[in-house]
Design goal:
Layout (H helix, E strand, L loop, with lengths): L1 H14 L6 H10 L2 H21 L5 E15 L3 E18 L7 H26 L1
Antiparallel strand pairs: 1-2
Helix pairs in contact: 3-4
């Protein structure tokens, strides 16, 4: 049994192409840790929510276009004479938030603090590992 184990270790040692230091192994363990990946994903999601809330300060531009055809006739007098008209409609609107009684700034600040909290939590998870 001891000879087989020694032989396996020798074969594994000879077939190894790279030598890793302890720091390299620790770094790989941290990089592939599921709970650290979850913690990093939570921070990334909170950052996205903050960015979305901050977009409330930015102007909004809406553009809508529509086209259609309208047909009508005078049925009692001349039912076979159909009048067709083409319609093209367009609308552009630009909106800018001027003041909303602190609603947007309160939401942005809350999500910023939550994002900072997730960042601290992620750093603590790394430190705990």
């Amino acid at each position: 049994m001891f000879r087989i184990l020694t032989l396996i270790l020798l074969v594994v040692n000879l077939s190894a192409q790279q030598t890793y230091s302890v720091d390299d192994l620790i770094f790989e363990a941290l990089k592939n840790s599921p709970d650290l990946k979850i913690s990093a994903a939570e921070y990334k999601a909170s950052k996205s929510r903050y960015d979305e809330a901050f977009a409330g300060y930015l102007p909004t531009l809406d553009l809508s276009l529509s086209a259609g055809e309208l047909g009508m006739s005078d049925i009692p007098n001349n039912p076979n004479d159909m009048k067709n008209d083409s319609l093209l409609l367009g609308k552009i609107s630009l909106k800018q938030l001027i003041y909303d009684f602190g609603k947007t700034s309160g939401s942005v600040n809350t999500l910023k603090y939550k994002s900072d909290s997730y960042l601290s939590s992620n750093e603590q998870e790394i430190s705990n590992k």
